[in-house]
Design brief:
Chains A, B: One of its GO terms (biological process) is response to stress. Chains A, B: GO terms for molecular function: DNA-binding transcription factor activity. 2 copies of one chain form a homodimer. The first copy, chain A, has about 160 residues and is mainly α. Chain A has 6 helices and 3 strands, in the order ααβααββαα. The first copy, chain A, has a 3-stranded antiparallel β-sheet with strand order 1-3-2. The longest helix of chain A is centred in the first third of the chain and has 29 residues. The first copy, chain A, is globular. The two termini of chain A are about 40 Å apart. Chains A and B meet through α1, α5 and α6 of A and α1, α5 and α6 of B. Chain A binds a DNA duplex (30 and 30 nucleotides) through α4.
Chain lengths: ~160, ~160
Amino acid sequence: MTETRPLEPQEWEFWDLWMRAQRLLARELERDLQRECDVSKAEFSMLVTLWQAAGREMRVGELSESLDWDKSRVSHQLTRMEKRGFVKRTKYGIDGRRAGIGLTTEGCRAAQSAILVHGGNIRRYVLDSLTPEQASVIRAWSEQAVDRLESRRGETASDGAS
Amino acid sequence: MTETRPLEPQEWEFWDLWMRAQRLLARELERDLQRECDVSKAEFSMLVTLWQAAGREMRVGELSESLDWDKSRVSHQLTRMEKRGFVKRTKYGIDGRRAGIGLTTEGCRAAQSAILVHGGNIRRYVLDSLTPEQASVIRAWSEQAVDRLESRRGETASDGAS
DNA sequence: CCGAAAGAGTTGACGTGTCAACTCTAGATT
DNA sequence: AATCTAGAGTTGACACGTCAACTCTTTCGG
């Protein structure tokens, strides 16, 4: 019933342009982060999340929730970052509970510097060049999109808004 | 040097929201494409590009240019898609020239169906829910960003050796 | 107490993406 | 003509992401 006619050329062009802008921007930001801090985007996300936990150890499940990453993705990333010396898995007590995750000193250092540098890049590449109107439209669109897409996940779950 | 003060909390929040919207949207679109057409995003891009070449064979270099992908990325993707039977590398004549790339019958079929389905999803998930004002602001921002980022590509030449 | 089910985390296989090193040919240099 | 070099394409190593299968502990039902 849903007539699936192909996109009009100008629709494709619009979509293509938009996606290209996102891709180029993401590429530029990630390259700079890598070059200036020797930290990848995935590492950055992980570092920020652990950094925000302010020294407290986090469980894999919390990281997964907070980053909106698959648990297995978190685990793989932790393995890589453990090798790099950014994080450590610390076993819980004798009760056999699984690992808590914490930043190493090296991880803290990297997190601080990366947050500063990356924040600066975001400001320079993006925020500074947005007109107030653009910013407000983009914010509105983002809210709209996130609402729609996140509600889709829990379909039958509680409304969440309390 | 530009003073690199950390982003204000509301700036982070804005950036975070925007990125989350992009991420959720991309995830949703890719999942649907995968589920409905059994075609990944990378495969889709490749299929579309070859499809637009209207049966004509393309060289790896042209694909690389047209997709804005690294040549090695193109080559790896071709290898995978050759295994799936979507594309074939056809050797040029006896002059030893390298491969030309073409869609197989199977590839054509997949391209047609994926373009239809994916286009429909883009329309439903995105285009239909954009107000004209949002669309025009997003288009303007995208143009602005693409201009700035694409012009930057030439000038980041590796200096050092004068 | 024993065993099934549930929850947390890990692992392996594989597709994707990047970087650097490599092969092969063609055209330029001498 | 012999070689050097530039361009095209491939390959291997490794980081990133996803999916399904697995381990281990806790918990719940008999």
